[in-house]
Every structure is written in structure tokens, then in C-alpha cells.
Amino acid sequence: MAFTLYSLIQAAILCVNAVAVLHEERFLSKIGWGVDTSVGGFGDEPGVKVQLMTLVRSVRTVMRVPLIAVNAVCIVLLLLFG
Amino acid sequence: MDLPQQGYRATKPRARAAPPTADSVLFDDTSSAAPAMNSQGYYTPGYNMAGPQNDMQGGAGPNNMFADPMANAAMMYGSSLANTGKDMVNKEISKFMSVNKLKYFFAVDTRYVLKKLMILMFPYTHQDWEVRYHRDTPLPPRQDVNAPDLYIPTMAFITYILLAGMALGIQKRFSPEVLGLCASTALVWVIIEVLVMLLSLYLLTVHSDLSTFDLIAYSGYKYVGMIFTVLCGLLFGSDGYYVALAWSSCALMFFLVRSLKMKIIPSTDSMGTGSSAKPQFRLYITVVIAVFQPIIIYWLTSHLVR
User: Fold this and answer.
1) How wide is the angle at C-alpha B208 spanned by C-alphas B202 and B214, nearest 5°?
2) Which of A27, B39, B112, B150 could form a disulfide with B105 if both were Cys (CB 3.0 to 4.6 A apart)?
3) Preferred mutation among B195, B200, B202, B205 to probe A, highest tally of A CBs within 10 A
């Protein structure tokens, strides 16, 4: 596999988009991956699932607005340069 | 009419004297000085040729070298602008990464580099793997052989790219794009590995004092093994390649397991119930990191030693 830096950026954008699209109440709670249910763990063992859910939620919160800009730029560049 | 002749000859030495003074100052505004030269006549050249040399020997500041206050003011403004730009760049960079922390990783000397390379290639005789501290701050690599550094990984990375270009050139498969492709592939693998390590350390709530730069350093040590492997493959053919691959993989796995065991797995059990992850997770992480190294070494070097 020969990677270029551009393919890394593309992969990163696609992954972050995928994480940002997961809706909290329509989808994740239905599966049982909601964050609000099992947050009260002050103990030392948050577990992998809770960590993952916290990570998904924080990525969604932080990257929502920058993703709009980055996706717009990416779309324009792809339209112009193929 | 030798007076104009003298005047003419007077201007010529002045023109030859102008370049030395132009070398010593950044810019020399000769447009206003030349008419003044011609009007003043023939006795000034002697004075002017001695003048700049006096200035250079006197070691006076840039202020005295300018006959023109406008140029003087322009140069002061320019230098202050450059200083402001430099401060701004430093401030912006220090928002992303702390430059002091980065300087810690490059504080190496020759003795450290030689010992570390020896340990990387033959770690089996090294006894003491503890990273030494000095009042809560880790010692810089100059004083502690076990401290991770970023000098060796950076140099090894660049050497690997050059060596890859040479190997491809020997097989007559070289073109400049291949070099860039090889460099970005290796860089992307390093980034992927560091991201996966960070992600796994976070998800399994392993609280260790491994910073991002530490992980980059430990992930970059495999380039030393890669260089050794590629060299042996070029010199001794396919058999030499596999032998060197086995040797450097074992050495690197041993090195990484011993080094990371100190940092990821708490050596003293004073944490006790406070340890946030089951100890087998920490062991799994260490072993997976170690096992990943030979795979990536093989992946990145096999196409070079066909």
C-alpha cells in the first residue's frame, strides 16, 4: 500500500464524518449505546464501552462545526480538481 | 585640463570602493551620495576610502554606517518587524506544542546516541531499564540512557528514505516520485501507529505518563532496525535480508517490551485498587505493540530488497 498524505487526510475526514453522523437519541440509545444511562461510574473502572461512548460524544460535540468547513472545502476541491 | 581628469579619476576609485562598503551594510543608498561625490570634487575620495574602513575597524553599530537617516530608520523598522514576526511565530507554535518539551527530546550528545544504537541492536545485556528522574522531572537524554529521544528517530527516518532511494536506484526502479511516495508512506504508518496507540491507551484507561512525543519516539526507533535490515539485504542478498529481519525484530521487540513495561505497567503496586485497568490489558497493549513492529518492518522493506 502506498499512502500519500492526501489519502491519510481523506481517510481521517471520512472517519470523523462517520463518527459525527451517529445520532444520540435516534440511534445510539436504541442500540443501548447511549451515554446518559451508565455515566454514574465514579469508580475506577469505566470500562471500554463507556470510554468509547464518551469519546464518540466528545468527537461529535467538538468536531461538528469544523467539519462543516472542512467538508465544504473538500467538496469544492474535489469539484475543481477531481 | 587635468582638473576634470582628476575629478574623473577620482570618481573611478570611489566606484571601486563602493562594493566593499556595500558588502558591509545591508543596503547602500548610492543615489543621493553620487551627485554629492561629483560636486565635492577630487579631494574627498581619499577621505571616503579611508572613512568606511575606519567605520569597519571601529566596529560601530549599523547606525554610523548610513549616511542617510531614511535608510537608517528603514533598517531599524525592518529589524523590529522581523523580531515581531519571530515572536508571533513562536507564540503560534507554542499553542500547538510546547517547544520546551520538544527541546527536551533533542538534548542528546554523541555518547548517548552511540549507547542507544547499541541498545537498540543488542538489548539483551542492558541491565537497568528505569528512566531516572530528578525531582519529578525526567532527566534529559544526555544524562539518562533510558530516556526516549526524537533525534535518533528523525535521523533514522531520513536515512531510511535515502537508503530506499538508493536501493531502488540499484534495481533501476528509481524515479523522484517514488522517493516522495516512500517518505509519505512511512510517515503515514508512523502516524497511524501513534494514533492507534493513543486510542488504545485512552480506551482501556491506562493512566501512564507516556506523552505523544514519547510514543512518536518509541514508534520511530524501528527505523534503525529497518536501515540495518535493508543494508544487509542489499549486501548479502535475500538470505541476509531475512536473517537481519529476524535479528532486528527480536531486538526491537525485546527493547520495546522492556522499555514500555516500565511505563505502562506500574512497577510498584501502590496504586492497588486505584489501578484503572486490569493488568492484563496493559500486558496486551505492550505485546501487541511489540508484535506489530516486525510486521511493519517487513511491509516497508520487502519491496526494496526484491
Assistant:
1) 90
2) B150
3) B205
Nearest residue to B209 (alpha-carbon basis) of B142, B103, B138, B154: B138
Considering CB atoms only, which of A4, A45, A55 is closest to B181?
A: A4
pLDDT in tens, B82-136: 888 888 888 877 776 667 778 888 888 898 899 999 988 888 888 887 777 777 7
> What values do phi and psi take at B138, rounded to 5?
-65, 145
Of residues B299, B291, B254, the one with CA closest to residue B121? B254
- The C-alpha atoms of residue B226 and residue B158 are separated, in whole angstroms, by 12
pLDDT band at A45 (very low <50, low <70, confident <90, very high): low
pTM: 0.68
Distance separating alpha carbons of residues B260 and B285, to the nearest angstrom: 10
β-strand partners of B133 = B138
Higher pLDDT, B98 or B214: B214
Q: What is residue B141's three-state secondary structure?
A: coil
User: B76 — contact with chain A (CB < 8 Å)?
Assistant: no
Element (H, E) at B134: strand B133-134
Q: What whole-number distance in Å separates Cα of residue A41 and Cα of residue A19?
A: 24
Using a CB-CB cut-off of 8 Å, the residues of chain B touching A3 are 184-185, 188-189
Residue B98 falls in which region: left (phi positive, over 0), alpha (psi -120 to 50) or beta: beta
AA letter at B257: V
d(CA B205, CA B282): 10
* DSSP secondary structure letter of residue A55: H
